[in-house]
Amino acid sequence: KTKQLTNQNFLILAISGGTILFLGLLYFIKRQRSRNKQLVYDREQQKSNEEIYMLMLKQKDKLEAVRLQERHRIAEDLHDGILSHLFGTRIGMGFLELKGDKDTMQNYRTFLKEMQEIEKDIRDVSHELKGDVLELKTDFESLIDHYISDKSSIGKFSYKIFTNNVKFKAIEDTIKVNIFRIIQESVQNIIKHASAKHVVINFSLKANILYLKVEDNGVGFNSKLKKEGIGLKNIKSRVLKINGVFKINSIPNKGTVLIITIPV
């Protein structure tokens, strides 16, 4: 009986061990599949973000092309229409044999000179409209500026953007997509929570490290006590995707500074 019980116990232990091993293997396989699905999802999301960014740039290019075409049309209308008509009128007035007292004739000559100055101003504006002086940039900088400008009217804050001659065209699209999303999330947080009156976005590049600083003069918070909201978590997640480092400094009633460093 002792031997039989021993055999039964051994069999139970063997079956239990086999069952645990089998269940562990199933759990490992399921977890690995879930992780692979997440990786595939992340890759697809990253690809979608890049496609959205490229579409936004293409749309901006189309808008700028239409604006440039319209500027050229206005320049031609000013130069060939209004300017020519004004010039003809001034020349015609110059040939008039007017008679009057000394003051009247002096005023007449003054008006002719003012018309000549107006012609010069119109000519200058026409050349600027048709040249490169007023052309808007259709790159990453203009995309950010357009977004901040739009949100500043909603959040009722003024803003400044400093790029410090960072060459964004040389930076990978993946990094630029995530930077744009980080700025979006930061500005949304400022509008929702900070009640800021002024926002500064500052880019700089040193030794292949891109520095992004987003600063506001809002209500701030105690970063040591307050839990991170979904906005900050999203920013952290995006920073990690591009191998960056995330840091936030905030003091109640003295604003918040978000500092991100990214290898490029």
Give the SSE layout.
Elements: H1 2-94, H2 102-130, H3 140-155, E1 158-162, H4 173-194, E2 198-206, E3 209-216, H5 230-241, E4 245-250, E5 256-263
Parallel strand pairs: 1-2
Antiparallel strand pairs: 2-3, 3-5, 4-5
Helix pairs in contact: 1-2, 1-4, 3-4, 4-5
Explain how this protein is built.
The chain has 264 residues and is α+β, with helices and mostly antiparallel strands. The chain has helices at residues 2-94, 102-130, 140-155, 173-194, 230-241, and strands at residues 158-162, 198-206, 209-216, 245-250, 256-263. The chain has a 5-stranded mixed sheet, covered by helices on one side. Strand 4 (245-250) and strand 5 form a beta hairpin. The radius of gyration is 34 Å and the shape is elongated.
What's the N-to-C terminus distance? 75 Å
Radius of gyration: 34 Å
The helix/strand class is alpha+beta
Poorly predicted regions are 132-138
Order of strands, widest sheet: 1-2-3-5-4
Query: Element order, helices and strands?
Result: HHHEHEEHEE
- The rough form would be described as elongated
- Assign a percent range to the helix content: 55-70%
Total helical segments: 5
The major β-sheet equals: 5 strands, mixed
Instruction: Please indicate the percent range of residues in DSSP E strands (runs of 2 or more).
Output: 5-15%
* pLDDT averaged over residues: 83
- The tally of strands reads 5
Looking at this protein, list some descriptive labels.
alpha+beta
